[in-house]
Amino acid sequence: MDIKEIDRLREEKDFVILAHYYVDGEVQKIADYVGDSFYLSKVATQVSKENILFAGVSFMGESAKLLNPSKHVYMADNTADCPMAHMVTPEQIEEVREKYDDVSVVCYVNSTAEIKALSDVCVTSSNAVKVVKNIPNKKIYFIPDSNLGHYVAEKVPEKEIIFCDGFCHVHKSIDVSLVKEAMKLYPDAPVLVHPECTPDVTALADYVGSTAGILDYATESSSTEFIICTEMGIFFQLTEKNPDKKFFSVGQRQFCPNMKKISLEKVIEVMKNPKEEILLNDDIMEKACIPLKKMLELEK
Ligand code: 13P
Ligand code: SF4
After folding, report:
1. Ligand index nearest the alpha carbon of residue 39
2. Most buried in the list 26, 112, 224, 243, measured by CB within 10 Å?
3. pTM of the model
4. What is the CATH number of domain 174-248?
């Protein structure tokens, strides 16, 4: 694949390319910005190019559009979607709001724009604890991820959290027995865990954090080997930044099939022929950006 052609198109068509850590390394390599969900949502508010090309899943592109309504946002593949984003319904939110009038609906960014529009504040895996701490309400309805919700509940015991039953199938498949096996094989390796993992796995962690947090922890640590409990895409940056350190996965299933739909060929095709633009109706645009902006305020 001709990298020069990507650079030519990027300039000619006024594109900036944003990529999540879970997409293939070859896509991360050509992106202008690579990061976790939180970093990418902040970058989206700062870019000057007319067109944003998102190498990630649809909720990420939608967040970029919501925070940057005047820009054109295109997905490298608009079928790349996060199943967890659809694991809560407007009816569930309505039911909880009817039952408790003092509840704050806290929505993990891994959710659709329609769900964000019905929520009070968004969080990402890197700021969920901080944001929830800063919410004045005692009662929190945490949607859609049950595992991140339980992690937050443990860290912010003063809140009364109502859980939803959403989950990430990739992180759920990181089974506690596999982690224990890896710990026996590599007893000196700290265990780095994404909070979408189940509570029995996070209980074994030396560090729990977002993909960016895991990367920073491994880079700053004096340890030379690590057990990594998140999606495999992160291994690209881990090894780029730490060529002398060793990183071990647990089992064979740390792959997000949706993130893996993104390829260099698709990135080029979208720049040549931009047609997969994210378009949201005015009502959703207006309502769904409020919890995202609230998150940026509360996480300070
Ligand atoms: P980060 O918040 O670490 O980006 O992870 C979220 C995620 O699962 C992206 O799919
Ligand atoms: Fe969704 Fe999990 Fe894939 Fe992230 S890794 S996009 S949470 S399915």
Report:
1. 1
2. 112
3. 0.96
4. 3.40.50.10800
Give 139-169 pLDDT, tens digit per residue.
999 999 999 999 999 999 999 999 999 999 9
Whether the CB-CB separation of 121 and 140 falls below 8 Å is answered with no
Q: What is the structure's pLDDT at 20?
A: 98
- Judge if the beta carbon of residue 234 lies within 6 A of ligand 2: no
Please tell me the distance between residue 44's alpha carbon and the centre of ligand 2 in angstroms.
Answer: 20
Q: Which atom of ligand 2 is nearest to the CA of 82?
A: 1
Instruction: Say if ligand 2 is within 6 A of residue 25 CB.
Output: no
Confidence band of 1 (pLDDT split at 50, 70, 90): low
Whether ligand 1 lies within 6 angstroms of the CB of 18 is answered as no
Tell me the pLDDT tens digit for each residue of 203-228. Answer: 999 999 999 999 999 999 999 999 99
**Spacing, Cα 4 to ligand 2 middle (Å):** 31
Residues of the chain with CATH 3.40.50.10800: 3-81+259-282, 84-168+289-298, 174-248
Report the nearest atom of ligand 1 relative to the CA of 210: 3
Local confidence band at 42 (pLDDT 50, 70, 90 cut-offs):
confident
